[in-house]
Amino acid sequence: MEGTSERKKILAILGSPRKNGNSAVLAKHVITGAESAGAEVESVYLHGLNISPCQACFTCQKKKSTGCAIDDDMQSIYPALIEARAWILACPVYWFTMSAQMKLFMDRLFGLVAYGRDPFRAKRIAVAMSYGDRDPFVSGCVNALRAFQDAFRFTGSDLVGMVYGSALEPGEIEADGALMRKAEDLGRKLGSNL
């Protein structure tokens, strides 16, 4: 039974400074869907963690590397990323792309290769984003979505889907029932066949 639980583990990375913000609400609905498919979901709230920018030292890329050279909170996230079969990445759009918290995290994924053999290839990934404008193009949401698409195409990961919607005030996005259902559907899809 223990192997089943491990096999169905999902890690949700929340990249907003608001614990109850709109991207967190979207992520909550993706998580609900994933749990209804039998997945076990653990969440990591990036805001407030000490995650430094990548230093381009390439220590993580060297033969026999033991990991990223930066000793910060990302060190506790790497093992959880390796263990999880799927990831949910959620953040708001800030200044026409992903939040700074999520960008730091994404840049530090570069070092993940030092923690496991081909750590991206088997990962299933869902993305949840919120933005303040009415239009995903004008808001820059499309820029962020494209960055996720390009990154995970490069790593050979399975980008299962993306949900995104417009809302400004914390929690406002939850009024969009159709979007919440879409987020739960994405979670079920992500949690299936893990």
Describe this structure in words.
With 194 residues, this protein is an alpha/beta fold. The protein has one domain (2-191): Flavodoxin domain (Rossmann fold, 3-Layer(aba) Sandwich), CATH 3.40.50.360. The protein has helices at residues 2-7, 22-36, 74-83, 100-108, 136-139, 141-155, 177-191, and strands at residues 9-14, 40-45, 86-94, 97-98, 124-131, 158-166. Strands 1, 2, 3, 4, 5 and 6 form a six-stranded mixed sheet that branches. The longest helix has 15 residues, at 22-36. It is globular, with a radius of gyration of 16 Å. The two termini are 15 Å apart.
Summary keywords:
194 residues, alpha/beta, Rossmann fold, six-stranded mixed β-sheet, 7 helices, 6 strands, 21% strand, globular, disordered N terminus
Q: Span from first to last CA?
A: 15 Å
The level 1 CATH classification is Alpha Beta
Class of secondary structure makeup: alpha/beta
CATH superfamily: Flavodoxin domain
Number of strands: 6
Summarize the biggest pleated sheet: 6 strands, mixed
Order of helices and strands: HEHEHEEHEHHEH
Helical segment count: 7
Mean pLDDT: 94
Q: How many domain units?
A: 1
Task: Report the CATH topology name.
Answer: Rossmann fold
What portion of residues belong to β-strands? Answer: 15-25%
What CATH architecture label applies?
3-Layer(aba) Sandwich
Uncertain runs: 1-5
> Helical percent range?
25-40%
Specify the overall morphology.
globular
For the CA atoms, what is the radius of gyration? Answer: 16 Å
